[in-house]
Amino acid sequence: MCLDKIYKLRTGVSLKVSTIALQELIANAIRKRKFPELHDMRSTSDLYDYLSVVVCDGAEGLIERRQRWIEKPIQADLIAGRPVSFRSFCNLFWRNLDEDDPDGDEWQKMIASDQFYFQLTILLNKLRIAERSLQDHKGVLPELSLGSA
Question: How many Å apart are CA 45 and CA 56, to the nearest integer?
């Protein structure tokens, strides 16, 4: 799974894991020359708070299948195609209940994949570069494309 790329699940749900909040965080850090949030990010799991999931298609079916675990605010965001926090989206899927659920099984496999971990590691390295550049006050920062490598 690559960040900022749309994936289609077998059930017809199309979704992407977005880095827009991280892009905004870096832009604000560059503009203000302050970077405390960047400094606090030390592991790939620290990035989860800055990732979101956008369901591009098939939200209604996903909501129907996950109805027992979905909260109203998340439901409205999914239907409207608005971003949902990565952690909130993950909470829709309980591993021990997803053995026969195609959405949950595919989602769990995607976020447990080496490719997803690799993407997060690259992203964390890019954030370290931005932090070092800000600390050095070199004026011009390298171009940081946060999407897929």
Answer: 24
| Mean pLDDT in order along the chain per 10 residues (149 residues) | 90 93 82 72 89 95 85 90 94 68 84 93 85 66 51
CB contact at 8 A, 102 and 9: yes
Alpha-carbon distances, residue 28 vs 19, 21, 24, 38, 54 (angstroms): 14, 10, 6, 11, 23
